[in-house]
Amino acid sequence: MRTWQFRGAQLDFPRACACCLGPAHKVYVSEKTFIYGRQSRSLTLLVPMCDQHFSQASASGRLQTGLERLSVWIGALVGMLVAGGLFNYWMASGSTNLWVNIPLALVVGACFFVSAWALVLFYMAPLFKPAAARRVADVVRMTRYDPFRGLLNVQFENETFGQLTARANPRLLVVEPARDRLVLISAHIQDDDIRLSGRLETRVLLAGLPTQAEALALLAPAIELCLVQQGGKDTFYAVDAIEMVELDDWGAAQR
Prior knowledge:
Blueprint (H helix, E strand, L loop, with lengths): L1 E6 L18 E11 L2 E11 L1 H8 L3 H32 L4 H27 L6 H7 L2 E7 L4 E6 L2 H10 L12 E11 L4 E11 L5 H7 L1 H10 L8 E11 L3 E2 L2
Antiparallel strand pairs: 1-5, 2-3, 4-5, 6-7, 6-8, 8-9
Helix pairs in contact: 1-4, 2-3, 5-7
């Protein structure tokens, strides 16, 4: 489990399941509201998942489903009670006339209806999400947000997926000032068990060009993703012809 810090929530994720690195066919919407002072902000991440893990993350328990269905009725009851209470109070006090009390009470009641409905649906009901579903849903989780600098901390249960996400967002990734050079590392990979032969590459923010051993270690997440998606997990493979190029302007190779 590792936490990465990004500038904002508009992240590009690898085309792989955030749980198992397999082919992703669905997108799980991970939402979280951060409250700071009297203000709040809701952020959303579109997390790729395979069909199996998407179904697990989207599963709802009976109590959660019941609260979701009752949220409208709970909101309506709260709104009616507030509107009726205010109307009776204003009529008893004689501060305004009937034709002002009715629309004003309805407006205030509608505001309480929306607030109560949202509170039950988006805050209370998710608390009763099954533990197994919550574990899958939190495989990519927003943990902290700095609204003044726009910095978002994202925690990844699958460290390989986190590494690949960090490399897919070099412009948004917050790193040490010295690690500001984008390096393209490529190599040839061969796996006879799955008849795989070709080149793979990854882009990493570093302080400079790595050694051959360091480059091989940095290729590990890309290799793992390739083997999982090709059905060759835990098979024997060989990597050679490692090349490293420092990129300029986030894409062009330096001469």
